[in-house]
Structures are given as structure tokens and as C-alpha cells.
Design a protein that fits this description.
The protein is of the alpha+beta class and 210 residues long. The chain is 60% helix and 19% strand. The chain folds into 2 domains: 129 residues, no CATH class; 75 residues, ACT domain (Alpha-Beta Plaits), CATH 3.30.70.260. A hairpin with a 2-residue loop joins strand 1 and strand 2. Helix 1 packs antiparallel against helix 4, helix 2 packs parallel to helix 4 and helix 3 runs antiparallel to helix 4. The radius of gyration is 24 Å and the shape is elongated. It starts with a helix and ends with a strand.
Length: 210
């Protein structure tokens, strides 16, 4: 094994591991081991593509499939719960880890290190700006399941407006002998916590979820 090949293997593990540790720390689906293997695999496939090119084959045949093939791994981390979708950031990270592995495979070590640093900045530094975003009002949808009486729906609406939350739209449907009230409103994270507490204290309210 040449020094360059050894360097590529170690660097792929280090860079993939650095991003994987951040994902593991935040309890995301694709953690340390997954990111290490993806980065190492992308690097190896890229090296094999170069070898294929030197042998007279198409050097882009294997490398091109990494971009699409790794998407199947990333898709496995995307979860849907009602109208909420989670795991998109992890899926994008998996895609980028593969790109970093390819950069290492091609010997573009500076690009690989710079992009790893950039991804960590996005995950660790810019994540903190979400604290400010949560203080801003934004439109969101939440659902309240209650007993099938219109007086209860009116009580729910009044309780929400009592928190100075602006209701944009509300819709009521009946399922399993219960009312399912869909509410679109503008609120901050703190206001939503308060209104959730108040609504769940109403005896006729069965559950509340986003």
C-alpha cells in the first residue's frame, strides 16, 4: 500500500468520522459508523474509477453512480410523521459525505477538508441561530382532537385567541366519533407551549399534535 493510498484511507475516515460524530451527538439516524463507511466507500469507488480510466475504461462510470446510489442511503433517514418531515438534513449530510469521499479519492484534500469544516459550521454554529428563529412568529398547523361538540370547538378557539395567537384558518372533521380540529395559526415556540398546556387542561380535549 502506497503512502498516498494510506493517507486517503485515513483522511476519509477522519473527515467522515468528524461529520458522523456530530450526527451521532444529536442522535440522528446516520451516525459515526455510517458516515465513516460512506466516506470510505465513496473514496474507494473514486480510486477504482481512476484505475479503470488508466486501463482504458470510462473513469466516470463508477464515480457517477455514487451521486445517485448514495441517495438510497440518505432516503432511509427521512421520516414522516403526519405533516412533519424529519431527516432531510441528515440525508443531505450523507450525500455530502459521499462527495467528500470522492474528493479524497481524487486527491483533492484541501477541498475535502474545507467542505468538512463548512458542514460542521452549518451544523454546529448556524444551528444556534434557530434560537432566534423560535422567538419569531411563524405560521404552522396543529391538530386538536376533542369530543364532538361545537361548544368545545368554540372553547378551543377562544383559548387560543386568549394567548394573542392569530388564527389564519380552522377546519373541523369528524373521525371515530371525535372532532379533529385543524388550526393554522401564527405563533412563537413559547406561545405554542403555553397554548398547548392550556388546551390540554380542557377536559373535552383528547390530544394535541403538530
Amino acid at each position: 500500500m502506497t503512502t498516498e493510498m494510506f493517507l486517503k484511507i485515513i483522511l476519509a475516515l477522519i473527515l467522515g468520522g468528524a461529520l458522523g460524530m456530530e450526527r451521532q451527538y444529536h442522535d440522528k439516524p446516520a451516525g459515526f459508523a455510517t458516515n465513516c463507511l460512506i466516506c470510505l466507500g465513496a473514496m474507494l469507488f473514486t480510486v477504482l474509477s481512476e484505475i479503470m480510466g488508466l486501463a482504458g475504461g470510462d473513469p466516470g462510470r463508477i464515480a457517477a453512480q455514487i451521486v445517485t446510489g448514495v441517495g438510497f442511503i440518505g432516503a432511509g433517514s427521512i421520516l414522516r410523521d403526519g405533516n412533519k418531515i424529519s431527516g432531510l438534513t441528515t440525508a443531505a449530510s450523507v450525500w455530502l459525505v459521499a462527495a467528500i469521499g470522492m474528493a479524497v479519492g481524487y486527491g483533492e484534500f484541501i477541498w475535502a477538508c474545507a467542505c468538512t469544516a463548512a458542514i460542521l459550521i452549518v451544523h454546529l454554529v448556524l444551528r444556534r441561530t434557530l434560537v432566534w428563529v423560535e422567538k419569531m412568529r411563524h405560521y404552522d398547523t396543529f391538530y386538536v382532537v376533542c369530543t364532538p361538540h361545537w361548544s368545545v370547538v368554540e372553547k378551543i378557539t377562544k383559548q387560543i385567541e386568549k394567548q394573542n395567537i392569530q388564527i389564519l384558518k380552522s377546519q373541523v372533521s369528524k373521525q371515530d366519533n371525535l372532532f379533529r380540529v385543524c388550526i393554522v395559526a401564527a405563533f412563537t415556540a413559547h406561545e405554542f407551549q403555553n397554548v398547548t398546556k392550556d388546551l390540554l387542561e380542557i377536559p373535552e380535549v383528547q390530544s394535541l399534535y403538530q
